[in-house]
Amino acid sequence: MSDQLVFPKDFLWGVTTAAYQYEGAADEDGKGPSIWDTFTHLPGTVHHGDNGDIACDHYHRLDSDVELMAELGIGACRFSIAWPRVQPDGSSAVNQAGLDHYRRLVDALRARGIEPVVTLYHWDLPQGLQDVGGWTNRDTAKRFEDYARIVADALGDRVERWVTVNEPYVAAFVGYASGQHAPGLRDLGAAVTAAHHLLLGHGMAARAIAETAGSSAQIGIALNLVPVTPASKSDEDAAAARRLDVHLNRWFLDSVLLGRYPEMLLGEYVHLVGDDFLRAGDLEIIRADLDFLGVNYYTRRTVAVSADSKVAPPTRRSSYSSWLGVDERPRDDVPRTSTGWAIEPDGLTEILLRVREDYGDIPLYITENGAAFFDYADPTGAVRDPERIEYLSSHLVAAHAAISKGVDLRGYFLWSLLDNFEWADGYSQRFGIVFVDYRTQQRIPKASAFWYRGVIAANAVDGPQSAAGASATGQSAHQPD
Ligand code: IFM
Hints:
Layout: E1 4-6, E2 12-16, H1 19-22, H2 35-40, H3 62-71, E3 76-80, H4 83-86, H5 96-111, E4 115-121, H6 127-130, H7 139-155, E5 161-166, H8 168-176, H9 188-213, E6 218-224, E7 228-230, H10 235-258, H11 263-273, H12 282-286, E8 292-296, E9 301-305, H13 320-324, E10 326-328, H14 346-359, E11 364-368, H15 386-404, E12 409-414, E13 434-437, E14 442-445, H16 447-458, E15 460-462, H17 464-472
Parallel strand pairs: 2-3, 2-12, 3-4, 4-5, 5-6, 6-8, 7-9, 8-11, 11-12
Antiparallel strand pairs: 1-15, 9-10, 13-14
The structure holds 5-hydroxymethyl-3,4-dihydroxypiperidine.
């Protein structure tokens, strides 16, 4: 194909999975309960009353799932470790069976030539730690450091790339402020404190991995970054967009990469929770010496100033959109995924360029990108998902545009390999390139899986012209051999 966009040599093509969303085996082999085990069993927390007790049963299907990845030509798998499998209550002695499970997974991946990339925290905090405050308790950062050291000691000889925390913003604000995720609190102050301790835990864990796993360890964090666009040219909308941008993006980027919190919200955060949450030396720890930054990108947000933003001073009970004074102004001129997220691939180019411009040349990985659609197996048993192929290919074109402008992008991890448990949405949202029939646990690679195999084999994606032509004729999906 003449206008193929070729990616750099050694570009890493991967998929991302996560323990609670995939594994099941919720209380097997000595695992303790996590906050997600508790939360999903409370009435009214998750769509349809779903939970991760069985999920994709990946815990028991490790070998066949790895085999499937190999058949699809996947080069790397970023998976998360369930902390309560390793330390059932978060601070107790090590559960060897838990560590052995992940050693088996790492070895199975390596045996098939797939690089294992370990995420230490993808939201399943041991319930024992939540019982003493969870991430609002400063001691949880220290517990996280201990856990990181245990895992790095067990796997450091066979894992090179490490991600400390996945999306600290979501863990803190969706878990502690909006309450849609575990632990289900609605307390803005708790969320601010939790965000700080997640970042502190990140810094402490990064140091622990470097000390334990040795100099070949490559350590990063995965941040969900969201470009925020003002809905109009007015100064008020621009100011509202800046506030949301600091809240969502700069709070995490500045602290992790520059060792400081943005002044714009620091005063308000202190006003909300007092200055005790930030202690001397914390920001030096948070600014760990990272080898790479992981960027999780799905969509952008378009916002305007809220009509009633200044009605009342923020309280711990305020919602963060009213506290920040922003209203969403969803665009109606772009397609959406089944989660309702606007499909805006140019936001990916924008955020990658911005990270380089504002923070310099740190190596980047797209550690998550993907989309949910209403997929189904047709009467022949095939799952055709042209919208996902379109989504993925447009985002790879956007990633390539950033590379051609000089961004040091080293890899792409697709969210996700399998359909899985999508948190508060339960099993209603399918993000996989492989369809899962949850009644039988049958895996059916979707058309996008064969398409992705073709991208990986070519180390290239069709440019916008030929991609548009191919999807219009329905021919962009490679079929099974
Ligand atoms: O499923 C999640 C994942 O756990 C974290 N990032 C976003 C994905 C889609 O919502």
